[in-house]
Design the sequence.
């Protein structure tokens, strides 16, 4: 993890999607990829509810690598990009090799072979992981379909063009869902037992309309949804480095990386219900009674967890684990402190998920949002204060000790942005 990698990832907040079409709001890459990975989690969990084994690490890696690939090819429309890949034929390998060269220096050396294989040998990357590949392909188009139906169709003057794109996307998703053995029509139309999915995915999708730092002008203006993907992707690199530092077994490392990635992705799900309440207001309200947390918990249960539970209990159970006390380490249902967490990782305890590291990634994302705005000349006091406080906090002895225990170079990362 380094400054160049974070800078590249942050570009995802500025890369516009569907910019050749009328749309009701700006649509950006990080928002779409966040929603895509939420769909991927949903599909993977539904498969596991049918006793289908899913290798979650492949889904997470595929999602992260594809995001960075799109960051390089940001100016090419998706249909044109696919047409280029189709027509290149044997030269497609050279094109993907060029993409890899644009990204190689950003990636930690230990991750380069996997990224290179994803770009140059996709069949090898997904060998024995066909279900995971289908999950990612379906989720990728499903997030695009959601954007088309909710944020483009209502303002587009040519219904026939929207209808054509819509049917192409639905056909692609339908084919993948059928091959996965999932009820394609029920899922696409949220019918029958799957009726609880649509309102939840709508609620998550609308996180792209909630702008962070709502009282402070910034460039770029980041959404809660895109921020969630930034945090999850940062955690991907943090946990990968930490796993190597702690020399964990492959099974423990894979489980930890996948669980922590999705915890980062869903950590702000409560803001789909209460909006992004600014920190001073939260502190003033919470000083006597933790009322915001109580309201969030009640609404989450009623509007998110219960509807998913009616689809399948495993969806509710898994999401509850991810979002409950999201900054506390845990193994399954058991919450532990950081020392016990590290000991449990070494012992190979099942279902590990980070807490303190999620908070560190969340704070780093907020720091970068402030730092980038300041770099662009926006010197609002709230931005300057936030940037200084974050850098100062993670230079403190206790924070340094925690980062060093986990093998995450937070001090160096903040120093790189000085």
Sequence:
């Amino acid at each position: 993890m380094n400054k160049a990698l974070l800078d590249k990832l942050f570009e995802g907040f500025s890369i516009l999607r569907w910019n050749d079409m009328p749309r009701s709001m700006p649509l950006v890459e990080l928002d779409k990829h966040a929603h895509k990975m939420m769909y991927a989690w949903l599909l993977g969990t539904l498969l596991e509810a049918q006793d289908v084994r899913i290798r979650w690490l492949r889904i997470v890696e595929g999602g992260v690598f594809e995001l960075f690939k799109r960051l390089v090819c940001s100016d090419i429309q998706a249909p044109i990009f696919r047409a280029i890949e189709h027509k290149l034929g044997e030269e497609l390998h050279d094109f993907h090799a060029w993409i890899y060269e644009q990204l190689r220096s950003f990636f930690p050396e230990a991750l380069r072979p996997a990224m290179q294989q994803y770009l140059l040998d996709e069949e090898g990357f997904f060998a024995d992981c066909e279900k995971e590949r289908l999950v990612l392909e379906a989720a990728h188009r499903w997030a695009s379909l959601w954007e088309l139906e909710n944020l483009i169709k209502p303002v587009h003057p040519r219904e026939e063009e929207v209808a054509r794109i819509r049917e192409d996307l639905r056909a692609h998703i339908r084919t993948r869902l059928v091959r996965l053995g999932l009820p394609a029509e029920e899922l696409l139309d949220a019918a029958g037992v799957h009726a609880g999915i649509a309102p939840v995915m709508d609620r998550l999708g609308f996180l792209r309309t909630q702008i962070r730092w709502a009282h402070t002008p910034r460039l770029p203006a980041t959404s809660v949804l895109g921020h969630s993907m930034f945090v999850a992707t940062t955690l991907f690199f943090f946990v990968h480095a930490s796993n190597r530092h702690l020399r964990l077994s492959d099974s423990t490392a894979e489980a930890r990386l996948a669980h922590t990635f999705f915890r980062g992705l869903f950590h702000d799900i409560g803001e789909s219900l209460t909006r992004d309440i600014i920190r001073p207001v939260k502190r003033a309200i919470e000083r006597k009674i933790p009322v915001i947390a109580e309201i969030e918990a009640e609404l989450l249960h009623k509007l998110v967890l219960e509807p998913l539970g009616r689809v399948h209990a495993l969806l509710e159970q898994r999401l509850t684990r991810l979002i409950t006390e999201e900054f506390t380490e845990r193994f399954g249902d058991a919450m532990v402190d950081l020392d016990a967490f590290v000991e449990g990782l070494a012992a190979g305890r099942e279902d590990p998920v980070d807490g303190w590291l999620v908070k560190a990634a969340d704070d780093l994302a907020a720091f970068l949002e402030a730092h980038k705005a300041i770099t662009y000349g926006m010197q609002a006091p709230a931005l300057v204060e936030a940037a200084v406080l974050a850098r100062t906090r993670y230079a403190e002895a206790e924070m340094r000790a925690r980062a060093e225990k986990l093998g995450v170079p937070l001090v160096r990362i903040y120093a790189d942005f000085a």
In short: The radius of gyration is 21 Å. Strands lie at 16-17, 27-28, 330-331, 334-335, 352-353. The chain has 22 helices and five strands. The chain has a mean pLDDT of 89.
